[in-house]
UniProtKB/TrEMBL annotation:
Sequence ranges assigned to domain HAMP in this UniProt record: 213-275
InterPro entries referenced in this protein's UniProt entry, alphabetically: HAMP_dom, HATPase_C_sf, HATPase_dom, His_kinase_dom, HisK_dim/P_dom, HisK_dim/P_sf, Sig_transdc_His_kin-like_C, TCS_sensor_his_kinase
Protein keywords: Kinase, Membrane, Phosphoprotein, Transferase, Transmembrane, Transmembrane helix, Two-component regulatory system
Alphabetized PANTHER family for the sequence: SENSOR HISTIDINE KINASE TRCS (PTHR45436:SF5), SENSOR HISTIDINE KINASE YKOH (PTHR45436)
Gene (name only): tcrY
Catalytic activity of the protein: ATP + protein L-histidine = ADP + protein N-phospho-L-histidine
Protein name in the entry: histidine kinase
Top-tier EC class: transferase
Length: 524
């Protein structure tokens, strides 16, 4: 049953909302794809960089071969970089630094290209001192390393020594090739990988949403069935649970199918339990109705015989006369109790109401007039709108509702208490309110005052006359049953000095001639 005040959410609504299984699956799949894209991009970047740097290294080996192997026609190492290493045909940006055997700088240069008049020429420019200082730290062992040269950028450099036939160190030479083109290609690769990764993530989101939505359709159908069952009134009456999960969604070979199969089994058990409960309630109602009906005749006989003794009570002893008066009073009280139980049993089994437009103002006026006659020691007040308020209902049952509420206020409040009855219109409903200024209802029983045989003797003081009256503890239970049969509601709020019973009933539009209202003279 749907909790009061809650609004059922249709199955499938907000399928990718926060906290849903579909959203978590999409997020996780997307995260995995994004992680895979990042790792793949990183691996591609590192592999590409290694290949490009290796290619530059091969070019660097070709450049340095002229000096390291002079017999191969690469030139004389003693002629300097501008004529030996730095010549047209070498990659633009190639640099060379030659140090003497004592570590002093002999020469340095970098091959640059200049364009003029649609022609190009190659020149050698000297290196800045900061770059020479950085190259001086390169080890002359033939190994290649990457060096960031101030003002020139990143270079792949290699150093080696030149010795004479005696093994004496003649020169230390450092040769380098620029990595600018390599870095430029790597930047383009990173940009391309970022675009491809973003496209892969977007494709993963779109694809996973489609796959997840289709994969969760059986689960959504199971949820829709559960939602439909949750909106059925299961608290009373005969309940037909004809709703079941479709057979295709109750296949135990899948996870969702096992859930659907278990849900169908649960519905079968619930249906059996509800049927057993309904049968038990029907038996109890029938027993109460039969017992109440059968008790009416014996109680009527007891009351009759007790009334016959009234003429002879003067000749009885005082104790016997008192006992007979109590027998008569309790028989009368029990008769009222039996009548109330019989009425409740009829209402539970399906009330037979004569529904018609009823002027609630008239009903309240008549009920308050009766209550004033029964309780002249209370202060009675009326608060009615200028126009008749017409509700759909059974006139006599609605009169009983108002009369019971007024009797409850009269019975459980001390003399001098102010009791007020009002009628109002609220939207499409009519509202009848009965308030009193009595001591109030204890807070711990306010939520069960409409249950049968609920009493509040501690706080709601009973008047002496009510001890022998017709109070049975069923008055408010009858009020709740009659109001519910009219598709209305009744509520109570109470604190010391103010107790209010509010009855809400469907509003009807009065047609035909204006309804006559009885006189309110002497009521308030």
């Amino acid at each position: 049953m749907v909790p009061p005040g809650s609004t059922p959410v249709p199955a499938g609504a907000g399928a990718f909302g926060p906290g849903t299984l579909a959203r978590r699956l999409v997020v996780r799949v997307t995260a995995m794809v994004a992680l895979a894209a990042v790792l793949l991009s990183a691996a591609t970047f590192l592999a590409t960089r290694q290949l490009l740097v290796r290619e530059v290294g091969r070019q660097l080996d070709t450049v340095t071969g002229r000096v390291r192997f002079p017999g191969s026609g690469y030139g004389d190492p003693g002629r300097g970089p501008d004529t030996t290493l730095l010549r047209p045909g070498q990659p633009v940006g190639t640099l060379a630094v030659i140090f003497n055997g004592d570590g002093s700088l002999k020469d340095s240069g970098r091959l640059v290209e200049s364009r003029a008049n649609n022609s190009s020429s190659f020149n050698v420019e000297r290196l800045p001192a900061s770059a020479i200082d950085r190259l001086d730290d390169v080890k002359a062992n033939g190994a290649e390393e990457t060096a960031a040269l101030p003002g020139l950028g990143q270079y792949l450099v290699s150093g080696f020594e030149v010795r004479d036939t005696n093994g004496t160190l003649v020169q230390s030479i450092v040769v380098g090739l620029p990595l600018e083109e390599v870095n430029h290609q790597l930047i383009q690769l990173v940009g391309l990988e970022a675009v491809l990764a973003a496209l892969a993530v977007m494709a993963a989101v779109a694809g996973s949403r489609t796959v997840v939505r289709r994969s969760l359709r059986p689960l959504n159908r199971v949820a829709a069935t559960a939602q439909q069952v949750s909106q059925l009134p299961l608290d009373r009456g005969e309940v037909a649970l004809a709703v079941r999960v479709p057979p295709e969604d109750a296949d135990p070979t899948s996870e969702v199918g096992r859930v659907g199969q278990a849900f169908n089994h649960m519905l079968n058990n619930v249906e059996d339990a509800l049927a057993a409960r309904q049968a038990s309630e029907t038996k109890v109602r029938q027993f109460v109705a039969d017992a109440s009906h059968e008790l009416r005749n014996p109680l009527a006989a007891i009351r009759g015989y007790a009334e016959l003794t009234r003429r002879e009570r003067s000749s009885m002893s005082e104790n016997a006369a008192f006992a007979m008066s109590r027998v008569e009073a309790e028989a009368e009280r029990m008769s009222y109790l039996v009548e109330d139980l019989l009425l409740l049993a009829r209402l539970d089994s399906g009330p037979n109401l004569d529904v018609a437009p009823v002027d609630l103002s008239e009903v309240v006026i008549n009920a308050l007039s009766d209550a004033r006659a029964a309780g002249p020691d209370h202060v009675w007040q009326l608060d009615l709108p200028p126009e008749p308020v017409v509700a759909l209902g059974d006139r006599y049952r609605l009169h009983q509702v108002v009369a019971n509420l007024l009797a409850n206020a009269r019975t459980h409040t001390p003399p001098g208490t102010r009791v007020s009855a009002s009628v109002a219109v609220a939207g499409t409903d009519t509202v009848v309110t009965v308030t009193d200024s009595g001591p109030g209802i204890p807070e711990d029983i306010q939520n069960r005052v409409f249950e049968r045989f609920t009493r509040a003797e501690v706080s709601r003081v009973r008047t002496p006359g009510a001890q022998t009256g017709r109070s049975t503890g069923l008055g408010l239970a009858i009020v709740a049953a009659v109001v519910e049969a009219h598709h209305g509601s009744v509520a109570v709020s109470s604190r010391p000095g103010h107790t209010a019973f509010v009855v809400t009933l469907p509003l009807a539009t009065a047609t035909g001639p204006t309804l006559n209202r009885p006189s309110t003279a002497g009521v308030a």
